[in-house]
Write a structure and sequence with these properties.
This protein is 27% helix and 40% strand. The protein is of the alpha+beta class.
Length: 112
């Protein structure tokens, strides 16, 4: 569905990155990764979690089922959605035109 090589290219860099791309089916997808500091990641998570259109909230787990952070998703009235999470001291989000696409890209590209 999406080009997942972006995650490997930005992981461990000393700042933050954002990428606007499309899935193979033409859906717009935005990725954001911030790894400047634990406090900035916490701020990013909390400020995104203030959205009134939260549809999911819980923990982020890896492929083994271990909790690696917090995870939340929101959908705005236009249908666009953002899935965001912390992974250790890092903050990530996937944003797309629908929750279905955002979750599919998260599952494909960010399931450890």
């Amino acid at each position: 569905m999406a080009d997942c090589s972006w995650r490997a290219r930005v992981s461990g860099n000393p700042d933050y990155n954002i990428l606007n791309t499309k899935t193979r089916l033409g859906d717009d997808v935005d990725f954001y990764h911030d790894f400047r500091s634990p406090s900035i990641s916490a701020h990013n998570f909390e400020s995104n979690a203030e959205n009134l259109d939260i549809v999911e909230s819980g923990t982020k787990t890896n492929a083994a089922g271990d909790v690696i952070g917090r995870r939340t998703a929101w959908v705005i009235p236009t249908g666009a959605a953002r899935v965001f999470w912390t992974e250790g001291d890092e903050f990530w989000f996937v944003q797309a035109d629908s929750l279905r696409v955002a979750k599919a890209v998260e599952q494909q590209c960010f399931s450890n």
